[in-house]
Design goal:
Blueprint: H1 3-27, H2 30-54, H3 60-88, H4 96-120, H5 124-137
Helix pairs in contact: 1-2, 3-4
């Protein structure tokens, strides 16, 4: 059944466009990032509700447990990036090469931290993915 995913996609695009129009003035380019995030979150909620009703329910405890781990990892990543940005702020004004190096360091280290926290916290989906990659590399 593809009716609901298509409806969700159209709702997400419409939400995205409306939010951009409403927020582009005060938020400038940040409006695009905010509206895209909100539209995708709304699409996720819509499709989750549809799936929940089609399956006559699914285990919400597991979902919320995983969500808690993801929120914790995201908060740790935010704190890391906040601290790292403050440490590198003076260095980042040195030109294009130093700016790019700092951004690569910030993105790479925060991605490793986020993934590491999720793996160590036992997020099942990530653990399965990491184990499959490890088995392919052997």
């Amino acid at each position: 059944d593809t009716k609901f995913p298509v409806m969700g996609s159209f709702l997400a695009v419409a939400t995205n466009i409306v939010m951009i129009i409403l927020t582009i003035g005060p938020l400038q380019h940040r409006a695009i990032a905010l509206s895209t995030s909100c539209a995708m979150f709304g699409d996720f909620l819509f499709l989750s509700i549809v799936l929940y009703h089609k399956l006559n329910g699914y285990p919400l405890r597991y979902l919320f447990n995983s969500l808690g781990k993801i929120i914790f990892a995201a908060l740790c990543m935010w704190a890391w990036l906040f601290m790292l940005h403050n440490q590198l702020a003076g260095w980042m004004r040195g030109g294009l090469a130093t700016d790019m190096s700092a951004v690569i360091l910030m993105i790479g280290s925060s991605a490793l931290l986020y993934g590491g926290i999720l793996y160590l916290s036992g997020l099942q989906e990530l653990c399965v993915l990491v184990d499959k990659v490890r088995s392919r590399l052997r």
